[in-house]
Amino acid sequence: MAPASNRQFLLKRRPTGLVTRDDFECRETAIPSPGSGEALVRNLFLSFDPSQRIWITDMPGYMPPVAIGEVMRAHGIGQVILSNDPQLPVGSLVHGLIGWQDYVVSSKSVPFGFTPLPLRLPVPPEVMLSVLGMTGITAYFGLREIGAPKPGETVVISAAAGAVGSIAGQIAKIEGCRVVGLAGSDDKCTWLTQDLGFDAAINYKAADWKKQLRAACPKGVDIDFENVGGEIMQAVFSMLNLHARVVLCGLITGYNGDNPTASLVDLGPILVKRVRIEGFIVLDYAKRYLEAVTQLGQWLAAGKIKHRETIVEGLEHAPETLNRLFDGDKLGKLLLKIAEAPIKP
Ligand SMILES: NC(=O)c1ccc[n+]([C@@H]2O[C@H](COP(=O)([O-])OP(=O)(O)OC[C@H]3O[C@@H](n4cnc5c(N)ncnc54)[C@H](OP(=O)(O)O)[C@@H]3O)[C@@H](O)[C@H]2O)c1
Predict the structure, then answer these.
(1) What CATH number corresponds to the domain at position 147?
(2) Of 252, 278, 311, which is best to mutate to test ligand 1, by the most ligand atoms within 8 angstroms of its C-beta?
């Protein structure tokens, strides 16, 4: 049954290190009413993304920080249950910045607005937040546009068993590359090689991981799909080939520190090997999302791409769920289910 009030997590203070429940205020308020041209959305699934940890620091990024007292920002999918907006009819599923709460109004002040999903989805709604959502789209444009892979090249992917990494690696396989993943457990490595078809996967927590990485890349590295930064990035940099490309997708090692994007590395190999490093944000490709979703959907239907979601149940678990992105306690895309979907209007 739908709750009679709106539970919300508001940012109470800027966290240090991993978040705690005390960094947020959990409050219950009346369910908001949609105004003219607005719709009331019942939130169903929250996406958990490492960028959420950056949004609650005081550092300006591609979006302003979440203000103290503001509902915690997060992408997600919800269902319209009341509507004064002909573009968002009752019953439709929508994607947008729904936040850590049970209900949201599709007010014009919400950045990027709310996008209706196709009426008869061929996949469960949560897939629209993973392989057919921002993470799949990030992998698609990062690997293809910035990595520019050629058959036979060697691609190394860090955080390879995560949402972006697991899809980027499979796209690189489709492109005919040798794909080597780095992940934080033997089980994750087995999933990468046995289920997803990676050529090799290395547990970076093993004592000899650098030696294993060298052995797995006998011809050096042509593309570094970088999700992590720090020591892992440095190790991959030392193996880059002439004219290699570094797809600078994320630097998660720094996100819980004071300077979330700090990652000190020796740039010597970049100069000597004439390597191109390019940072990117998936929003840069907003006009081409349909192209990515269409191609990813075709690969999915053809069984060329597999995906996993780790789904936590219950809005009340949101703060500790965010930490699972950093302690690695999940496989594939991390989501939180707030309510059963879809609700019969
Ligand atoms: N540029 C863009 O537009 C864009 C868009 C989306 C995401 N990103 C970035 O892409 C990266 C992956 O994001 P995602 O959503 O797919 O998350 P994810 O990979 O599903 O989850 C994060 C993973 O990172 C690994 N990790 C965490 N802390 C680590 C550390 N200190 N050292 C090594 N590995 C660590 C953990 O896996 P293990 O168990 O294997 O350690 C964890 O499961 C992030 O850096 C994110 O910021 C960028």
Answers:
(1) 3.40.50.720
(2) 252
